[in-house]
Amino acid sequence: MTPTHLPGRVAIPSLPEQTRTPPSQNALESFNATPADEVRQTLLACLHSARWADRIADHRPYPDAESLLAASDEAAYDLTPADLAQALAWETLPALPEGAYSAAHTALSAAYAAYEAKFGHAFIICLYGLSHTEALDHVLAGIRSRLTNDPEEERVVAAEELRRLARGRLIHAVRGARNGATSHNGATLGNKQDTASH
């Protein structure tokens, strides 16, 4: 069964469990040595903010994974409203897990439409660490809860979700520098970005 894509845009990552584990020193050394233009493309696949990507790229080399992730967090906390808008506009809807029941599709479609009508941007939520069976309930609960926020409250929540997504994607991308794995949209560190998408 092919996973179904819903209308609208929402970031529901489905990266492997290894995103919880920091990249190895060899992967970090490869990241540090990658040409700036290539590393910026990979970073933009993690969080589509030119300011964030430039800041992470320009502060290389990183002595250890913790320093890289701390820099990622710090740069994400410093996103301006324009940076946040740029990053949110890039987020897209990936496939729901296989076997998702049709009622979930209907409920999520309605919730996404209500969210975008109210806030004018994609609903994003970080699901790292959740199983596929937990993800749908978490998304539905999250979007319903966040629909009660005012725009400023939601901007703060969305920025935190972007920071968490960027961190997980960065771990995955740096690991990919050594093993050819791809980021969430198919970009590989040190290789040309391919056209894979959700």
Which characteristics define this entry?
mainly alpha; 2% strand; UraD-like; 198 residues; two-stranded parallel sheet; 8 helices
Description:
- Helix content is 58%, strand content 2%.
- With 198 residues, it is mostly helical.
- A two-stranded parallel sheet has the order 1-2.
- Helix 2 (36-46) crosses helix 3 (50-58) and helix 6 (102-119) packs parallel to helix 7.
- Residues 1-19 and 178-198 have low confidence and may be disordered.
**Which architecture would the CATH scheme give at its second level?**
Orthogonal Bundle
Q: Look at the helices and sheets and give the structural class.
A: mainly alpha
Morphology call:
globular
Number of helices, counting only DSSP H or I runs of 4 residues or more: 8
Q: In order across it, which strands form the biggest sheet?
A: 1-2
The share of residues in helices is 55-70%
SSE order, one letter for each helix or strand: EHHHHHHEHH
What is the beta-strand fraction?
under 5%
